Amino acid sequence: KLQFLYFIGACNMSRIVLLALVASASAFVSKDGKALLRAPTSINEAKRWHRVGMRNARLNAKSHGHHMRPDGSAELRHQQMVGTFNPGRSVSPVDFGADPTGATDATQGVVDALKALLALNSTKKMAANITDMGGATLDLRGGNYLISQPLHIPTFVGNMRITGGTLRASPTFPKSAFLLNIGADNCKTDSQGSCNEEISVTSVMLDASHVALGGLYVSHTMGCVVTDSFFTGFTGYGIQVTAGHELMVSYSWFCEYYWSDSHPTTDSVGIELNGNDNYIVNVIVFDYTRTGVVVNGAANIMSSVHTWNGGGVGISLGNPRSSYGAHQNRIEYCYLDYNTLDAYDPSDLVVTDTFFLVTHMVIHGSKMSGLRLSMNSFTQAQTIVLNGTFTENSVSDVVVTGIQPSLQTTAIMTKPLALPSVTFDFSKQLLFPWIRHTVVSTASKWIGAQTTVSGTTVTVTGGDWSYDDGTITVEVHQ
Length: 478
Description:
The chain is mainly β. The chain is built from five helices and 36 strands. The protein has a 26-stranded parallel β-sheet that branches. Strands 31-36-33 form a three-stranded antiparallel β-sheet, with no helix packed on it. Strands 32-35-34 form a three-stranded antiparallel β-sheet, with no helix packed on it. α2 (15-23) packs across α3. The N and C termini lie far apart (82 Å).
């Protein structure tokens, strides 16, 4: 058997011929039923074996809907493929006549490959009667496919993959459409609000070519995973998500234009989340994209997101019309690179261990509660900008602490004792223009000392003291 396999490898034939030779091994069985395990003894015998293998390969290919060219390569009978070809659980557009070089329109081949994949039989079900495709895969095989119409993964399909190649919009692609669409806005969902589950897009480049609105649209889907992928050329969105939950985007890059391209000022967004409980991890949005990440939903996590998108806003939590995006979200280990972090009327928002390079955080609106900003680093004095009217009655339970922020919600100051009073001005240290609580401490027994607060100024007034250690300390809380 080893000699026989060695001979097949030495024939330098196409993959399908090799498979056909193995399938037609009966050609190498003697009349008495014993296998011919020896290698050919001459060139003529090798050629004869090759001719027998080619003959059986053609017969085998014909029975499966193929056509063998004279050189031994396979040409699929396109009209017979959909519904009859049985490729296992992986389908490639190349098998359906799609041009993988990007030179000609490959739409029909890609669409037919996707149809064939979705037509694979599966009796297994996931939640909400979603068909379990068993990991069925649309394998792009490293191809560059030019498409002129959107691709759709319909509702009630789950556990399937798209991997390994490029989908690129042609000049005639609809300007208001996304290259790839998962689910539908009008699906009738169960209590989880999802009609699709566990759809993966892995190692795919989605190039909208500055024609299509976006790269990927995901609607009412639970557990969509996008990883190791690249999004560019979108006029609207790299990824836009509507409803559903538990979407995960990781190890992916987003840009409308490359930093080396000249470009107009646009309204593009790298990722827009219109939903809850999603995860954006290890993602880079770079120059140029107008806004890096927009969040219009709660309980989302952004971790290790680097925005150097050149558009002014790196991450926007909420918008002028809704503060929901700044509610119960988490920002951690991110890098705002010359782009601001914006939050609208934030509540129960946590921003921690995030680096602000020549930029700051902007808090918009008129109220905030449960805000936690801690362990963040800034390279400039301006760290937090309040864009709106905030009053002592509209702000509650806000804590700003950390390694470097100059504006915080607590402050401590020590001064030498002096008669008749000592004044402490915290205006350059405190985030808000008020002080709620003060703690005055000194080793001296200051007779009749009184504390007065006005805005961010504290004045301690008193008579004489019984002994003097020389200092007085005031701690304030907002």
